[in-house]
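Deliverable D2.4 — example input (C-alpha cells):
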C-alpha cells in the first residue's frame, strides 16, 4: 500500500509535513531499543536528532546545556550586544559541571531583606551568596539563607530589630564563618565537603576569594546520569553558536572559537548570497576544525553553492517557522517537506547532513522530518515556552503563564539588534524595515528536563510504529522504498486531529 517517498515527492507542488502520513510497519523490538544516533554535521555524531534554534528567545547557555545533556545540541543566538557576551555563553556551557550553578543569583551588602524575599517568591531560591558587586566573579562577603530571614514573613512581632528594609549585610552569615569550596578542586572534592558538612549550599571561590559558582544540595539530589549527553573530546558538552555574514562577525568567530565552540551556524534567511559564501570560506580556511552549518536553503541549487564552498551541514527552511511571514511578505520560500526531501537527497551524495529548521509543531513532525532525509530537527517555538528559554514568564490572557517568543525578522528583534537585520539583508540605515516575522508568546511547557525526554521517547515510539529500529535503518528503508508514505486530503488531516468532542484535556507527559 501507499507509495515510496520518491513517488510521493514526484507529484507537482510543495508538500508539508501535514500533507502525508507514514504507513505502519512491523513491530518486533522494544521502544527502548530504538537508536536515535545521527549526525548534526559531517564530523559530529549525536545521540538524538534535536537542535535548538539560534533565536534570542530560545537559546542561551541554559537551553544549550540541557540540549547537550540529553544528546542534542543548542545553538547560542547572535543577538548579544557584544561578541564577548556571546562567547561567555559558550564558555558557560563548556564549563558546566553537574550540580553546579555557574551564574547564581547574588545580592549586594546593601540589598535588603525585601530583595531576598522577592527572589524567593520569584525564583524559589531559598538563599543567595552576597558579593561586593552583587554578581558572580566578585569578592564573596557572606551567604544569606532562609533561616536568616524566614521569621520576618511569619507575622511575628518579636523581630522588630529586623525589618524588610534591613540590609542583607546585617543578617548574612559572614564569609569567615562559612565552609567554602575551592574552584581548583575537582567536583568530587566539593561534593564531599557539601555532604560532610550537611550544607544546603556550598559557595565555590577562587584563590582571591571571588565567588565562582554555587554547589546546591537540591540540584545534586536531582542530578542523574545523562547517558546520551553530547560531549567533545575533552568530555565537555557540545555547543554551537550563530554568527551573521557581516565583516564584524569575524571577531565573534574568533572569540567563539577561543571559548571552545564546536559548531558555527551562519545565520541567514537566504543562504545563497556572496556574503555567506565568503564568510563560509573564511571560517573553513581560518579554523579548519570548526564545523560550519550554512543556510538557510530550500533548493538543490542553493545546496550546491554552499556545499561547494565547504559547508559541513545545511540548514533547511524558508518561511515554514511558526513566527515566519517570509512566504507571505517576500513571496519566496518552499513547503518544508519538499525542501527537506530535495536538499537531503542532494546533500546525501556528499555526506552532508541536513538540519530541518522550522515548522516542528510536535514530536511527530520530527519523525517526519527525519523520514524525509533530515539528520536532525531544529526547533524554535516548541522550546520557547520552557524554563530554559531566555526571559521571564508573564501572565497572559485567561491566566495562562507564557513566555515571549519572537521571530528574528520581527521588527521587535530587528530594531533591537543589527545581527537580526543582517539575517534579513536589512541595513541599520534603512528607513523602512520590512518585518519577516512576528512577536508572540508561548505557553509554559515546564522544564526541558522533562520535555526533551518526552520528545526523545515520542520519536522512539514513532520509529517503532514505522518498524525502524534506528534512524540509520529508517533512512535506508525509506530510500529503498520499503517504508511507505501516503498523502492525506484536507479531510484526512481533520480526521487525524482531535475531533467531535465536547471538551478535552491535552496532557502529553
Ligand atoms: P519554529 O517553527 O520552530 O521555527 O518556531 C523556528 C525557525 O524559524 C526561523 N525564523 C524566522 N523565519 N522570520 C522568518 O521567516 C522570522 O522572523 C524568523 N525567526 C526565526 C528560523 O530558521 C528558526 O530556526
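Example output (designed residues):
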Amino acid at each position: 500500500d501507499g507509495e515510496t517517498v520518491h513517488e510521493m515527492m514526484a507529484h507537482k507542488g510543495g508538500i508539508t509535513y501535514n500533507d502525508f502520513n507514514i504507513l505502519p510497519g512491523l513491530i518486533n523490538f522494544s521502544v527502548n531499543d530504538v537508536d536515535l544516533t545521527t549526525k548534526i554535521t559531517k564530523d559530529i555524531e549525536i545521540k538524538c536528532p534535536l537542535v535548538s534554534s539560534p533565536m534570542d528567545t530560545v537559546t542561551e547557555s541554559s537551553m544549550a546545556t540541557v540540549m547537550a545533556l540529553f544528546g542534542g545540541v543548542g545553538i547560542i543566538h547572535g543577538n548579544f550586544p557584544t561578541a564577548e557576551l556571546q562567547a561567555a555563553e559558550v564558555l558557560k556551557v563548556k564549563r558546566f559541571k553537574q550540580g553546579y550553578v555557574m551564574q547564581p543569583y547574588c545580592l549586594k551588602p546593601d540589598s535588603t531583606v525585601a530583595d531576598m524575599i522577592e527572589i524567593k517568591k520569584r525564583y524559589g531560591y531559598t538563599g543567595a551568596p552576597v558579593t561586593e558587586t552583587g554578581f558572580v566573579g566578585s569578592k564573596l562577603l557572606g551567604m544569606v539563607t532562609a533561616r536568616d530571614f524566614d521569621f520576618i514573613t511569619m507575622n511575628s512581632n518579636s523581630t522588630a530589630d529586623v525589618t524588610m528594609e534591613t540590609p542583607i549585610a546585617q543578617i548574612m552569615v559572614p564569609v569567615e564563618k562559612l565552609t567554602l569550596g575551592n574552584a581548583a578542586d575537582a567536583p568530587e572534592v566539593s561534593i564531599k565537603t557539601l555532604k560532610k558538612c550537611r550544607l544546603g549550599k556550598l559557595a565555590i571561590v577562587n584563590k582571591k576569594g571571588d565567588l565562582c559558582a554555587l554547589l546546591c544540595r537540591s540540584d545534586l539530589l536531582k542530578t542523574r546520569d545523562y547517558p546520551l549527553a553530547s560531549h567533545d573530546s575533552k568530555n565537555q558538552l557540545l555547543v554551537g553558536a550563530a554568527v551573521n555574514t557581516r565583516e564584524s562577525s569575524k571577531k565573534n568567530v574568533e572569540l567563539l572559537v577561543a571559548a571552545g565552540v564546536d559548531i558555527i551556524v551562519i545565520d541567514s534567511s537566504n543562504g545563497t548570497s556572496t556574503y555567506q559564501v565568503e564568510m563560509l570560506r573564511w571560517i573553513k580556511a581560518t579554523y579548519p576544525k570548526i564545523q560550519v552549518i550554512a543556510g538557510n536553503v530550500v533548493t538543490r541549487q542553493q545546496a550546491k553553492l554552499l556545499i561547494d564552498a565547504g559547508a559541513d551541514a545545511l540548514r533547511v527552511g524558508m518561511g515554514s517557522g511558526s513566527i515566519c511571514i517570509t512566504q507571505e511578505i517576500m513571496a519566496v520560500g518552499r513547503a518544508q517537506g519538499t525542501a527537506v526531501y530535495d536538499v537531503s537527497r542532494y546533500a546525501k551524495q556528499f555526506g552532508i547532513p541536513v538540519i530541518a529548521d522550522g515548522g516542528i509543531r510536535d514530536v511527530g513532525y520530527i519523525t517526519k522530518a527525519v523520514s524525509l532525509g533530515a539528520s536532525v530537527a531544529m526547533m524554535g517555538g516548541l522550546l520557547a515556552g520552557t524554563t530554559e528559554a531566555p526571559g521571564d514568564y508573564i501572565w497572559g490572557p485567561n491566566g495562562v503563564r507564557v513566555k515571549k517568543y519572537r521571530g528574528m525578522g520581527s521588527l521587535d528583534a530587528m530594531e533591537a539588534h543589527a545581527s537580526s537585520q543582517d539575517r534579513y539583508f536589512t541595513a541599520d540605515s534603512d528607513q523602512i524595515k520590512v518585518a519577516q516575522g512576528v512577536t508572540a508568546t508561548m505557553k509554559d511547557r515546564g522544564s526541558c528536563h522533562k520535555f526533551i525526554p518526552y520528545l526523545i521517547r515520542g520519536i522512539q515510539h514513532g520509529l517503532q510504529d514505522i518498524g525502524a529500529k534506528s534512524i540509520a535503518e529508517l533512512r535506508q528503508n525509506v530510500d529503498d522504498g520499503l517504508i511507505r508514505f501516503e498523502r492525506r486530503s484536507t479531510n484526512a488531516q481533520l480526521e487525524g486531529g482531535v475531533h467531535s468532542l465536547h471538551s478535552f484535556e491535552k496532557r502529553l507527559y
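Residues 53, 55, 269, 296, 317, 319, 321-324, 326, 357-360, 378-382, 407-410, 436-437 surround xanthosine-5'-monophosphate (CB under 6 Å).
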